[in-house]
Amino acid sequence: MDNKDMDTEGHPLKNTDVIVQENNDTSGEKEVHVTKPNGISRMSRIRTAAFFAALFLCLTAVFAFSFIIPCPVRPFSQRTWSVHYDNAVGYSFLATEDVNEDGVLDVIFLFKTDNSSSVNISCADKGFKSPCFFLSALSGTNSSTLWVSPVSDDEDIQVVQCGIHNLGGAGQSGCLIFVKPQFILAVDSKMGNVLWNQTTTIASNSVVTKPLVKIQDVDQDGVEDLMAFVTTENELQSVIFSGKSGDRVGQMWTINNEKPSGHYIHVTKSKAEYVLFYTGSTITGYSVSNLCANTLGSGLSATKLDHDWEAQKNTSAGFVSILSTAMSSGKILYLLNVPGTYYNNILVVKSEISELIDGQKFRPLWSVNTTNILSKPALGYFKRDVFSIIMEIEIGNNRKKVIIVDSNTGTLQWQIEMNLGIARQNPAVLNTGDHRSTFLFWGEYPKDVNITMEPEENLYMFHPSQPNALLQLNNHTENIVVFGVALFERSRHACYVLITGPNTTENPGTLTVSKRKFKEDISSGKVIWFGPENVNTEEIRDHFFRMRYSSH
Asked: What pLDDT digit, counting tens, does each position of 139-190 carry?
């Protein structure tokens, strides 16, 4: 057997290509074998090289981020801060938004003073007489003044509304101020600069009501516009202003000949917007799309309408009747949006009873007795992911009842009685990480309800995980102008903001704006236990302290 056969049999799986060069001479020289390079071996070397190259790149990136590229510095947020203004009065307005874009909410508020040294700018700098109103933004992290801007020397400030995106075409949010109905001022929320100011031809005895409605860009200047509602004696009118310049767009259109107590924006199942005007015990709804078309007079047709709502429309009158006097009991005080399973429902809060109205069919779903209701209700979660409503009802003898009811059925979930106090602030809600909420309200819960004492102002925290416990956070003797709660940083830093001191109906004095972190007050708070058995109050305080908050 020759050499070629022996090689084939001895190595049947050998992965080597062999070229046999035959020699025709008979010199006796052996065959010459030429072997090609192995393909697998070549791929192995390539993979090894790629691995080390990737490893080198990863190590270079780690080195760069660790030692060369500085990490972003997270702002240090003071747990508690206070700012004092001498010879000042407060205005019932408070907004929170991230003005300086540091990831922490900031505080925007309005106050009046003639002490220019405390704000480093005078009324005369903007052409106003002293004293005048200043719109100001304070840093949520350390209370430093981000900006302050004089806005009016007139007492008749009718509307202050912030968080209006792209106002003036600036690309960020802004604040709009109506001074009387004749003067409008737009302020940039980021820097406090005046974006535009305009005088109007609205009658001097008119009143502009809030909120303003942001609408489509009807004047086609690239910026969404604003609709306002004006009442003159018993006439209700709509008017549109350019969001870019403040110029009036179209004409004032008379909606009806009634003076409403207020209005509310409702979004239907089909995402159409309707304005609900309430007067006495009736509610009428007007499509925002139709209001725009009528106010402009021409050039725009109604586009976004809801089929269910339009099917119930009074065609001759031009509105949808949601609640009539025959169906109602008591004067309407507030309207609230209550999300349902498939669409939003309407909570109608009246002086005698409150009822939830189906947001598409307008039929009553449930009602509760709210005679002598004291404040605007708030929405939260008593059960996980199921909306509840907290209400405060006066029950006589300087006392009130705080109740929480299920939004689906109106059944009572929790209640407590306490003394009224003097704050008269609306309850507030913060959502927690367990898909429930903390409920916050003011009042006085004495150990002995029969003991009469000077009214106190205590802030209480309640969470459904501790149904027999209240946590008293803080007390105040000063007049509270504004109270608000907010999650200053996502998933952390839950705080409340207080503006205390004289309001616009009182003589000037010391006005204080303060932010307090809930954890700061919880650690020194007083646990009030009204359960049947004795408990370790320190463990309850620790439970509140460990609570996490959510923006959803």
From this structure: 999 999 999 999 999 889 999 999 999 999 988 899 999 998 889 999 999 9
Are 208 and 179 within 8 A, CB to CB? no
Whether residue 483 is found in the same domain as residue 429: yes
Q: What is the sign of the dihedral through the CA atoms of 125, 127, 128 and 132?
A: negative
In a domain, 311, yes or no: no
Of the residues 68, 93, 119, which one is the last residue of a structural domain? 68
Beta strands in 384-491 (DSSP E): 386-396, 399-406, 412-419, 428-431, 437-443, 457-462, 469-476, 480-489
Q: What is the pLDDT of residues 75-119, one digit of tens each?
A: 566 788 999 999 999 999 999 999 999 899 999 999 999 877 778
Please tell me the distance from the alpha carbon of residue 203 to that of residue 181, in angstroms, as a whole number. Answer: 7
| Statement to judge: residues 438 and 499 lie in one domain | yes
Q: Do 436 and 459 belong together in one domain?
A: yes
Tell me which residue range forms the domain holding 544: 82-105+372-552
Q: How many domains does one find in the chain? A: 2
Q: Kindly state the tokens that stand for 291.
A: 């209001």
Asked, for residue 177, whether it belongs to a domain, the answer is no
- Residue pair 391/370 in contact (Cβ under 8 Å)? The answer is yes
Alpha-carbon distances of 384 from 408, 428, 460, rounded to whole Å: 13, 18, 21
Q: Residues 221-258, buried b or exposed e (16+ Cβ, 10 A)? A: eebbbbbbbbbbeebbbbbbbbbbbbebbbebbebbee
Residue 62 is assigned to a structural domain of this protein: yes
Give the closest residue to 393 by CA, choosing from 383, 408, 384, 404: 404
Strands (E), 351-385: 353-357, 364-369, 378-383
Which are the contacts of 1, defined by CB distance < 8 A and separation ≥ 6? none
The closest of 273, 403, 339 to 552, measured between CA atoms, is 339
- CB-based contacts of 91: which residues, under 8 Å, 6+ apart? 109, 110, 111, 112, 133, 157, 160, 481, 503, 504
41 and 97 fall within a common domain:
no
- How many C-beta atoms surround the C-beta of residue 540 within 10 A? 21
Tokens in use for 251?
Answer: 């004409």
Mean pLDDT calculated for residue range 318-322:
92
Of 357, 361, 375, the C-alpha closest to 278 is 357
**Alpha helices, DSSP H only, in 374-529?**
518-522
Q: Which residue type occupies 199? A: T
Contact 456, 475 (CB under 8 A): yes
Q: Which of 284, 395, 290 is nearest to 348 (CA)?
A: 284
For residues 46 and 96, membership in a common domain is answered with: no
Number of H helices, E strands in the chain: 6, 35
